[in-house]
Predict the 3D structure of the following.
Amino acid sequence: MNRLIFMGPPGAGKGTQAEIFKNRFSIPQISTGEILREAVKNSTSMGLEAKKFMDAGDLVPDVVVIGIIKDRLAQKDCGNGFILDGFPRTVEQADALSKILKETKMDLDAVINLAVPDDELVQRLLSRAEKEGRADDNEETIKNRLQTYNSKTLPLIDFYRKAGILREINGVGSMEEITNEIQRALG
Ligand code: ADP
């Protein structure tokens, strides 16, 4: 069974690697960032609410993203496993996830954490800004996203380490090297 979380700071490459393993394991990749960007694009009420937080590089309120994940995990295609990409990002979200999984009698198998130094992340996000033009990839917002990650999300690493399911991966290297390292960590 593959019930996985891909964690890491903005720019660590978790979305890229999650997509590779989604194909390799034939399980859905659930990216809260993608779901939120889609909602913004479609101007849904959720999108309109989320936009101001995303543009500022702040986290969207827990209640919104927890609702997204609760609905998504209830869908049939998650029955054989899933990759959570960009969720959870706060202790509250991690607690909510534990509760959802307990209710549905599911367990997490592994949490992959991609570690990349801050200065490398800033370089990557700035170059992504040039290529993809994502609204939140500008210098001011990048700084805030990294700070938010360090204060709100970093504590989760310890949470999952204590749970015995954390797999720490060096996120600096070629895409293939990192994919291989993740594959080894998943066994
Ligand atoms: P990145 O990892 O580069 O920040 P994401 O696509 O994962 O990119 O997220 C983009 C933005 O979407 C975040 O800055 C935040 O505003 C919002 N977001 C995504 N996932 C969450 C989450 N789990 N909790 C709160 N906000 C989120």
Q: What stands out?
A: Residues 10-11, 32-33, 36, 53-54, 57-60, 65, 86-87, 89, 93, 136, 145 surround adenosine-5'-diphosphate (CB under 6 Å). The chain is about 60% helix and 15% strand. The radius of gyration is 16 Å. Strands lie at 2-7, 29-31, 81-85, 110-115, 166-170.
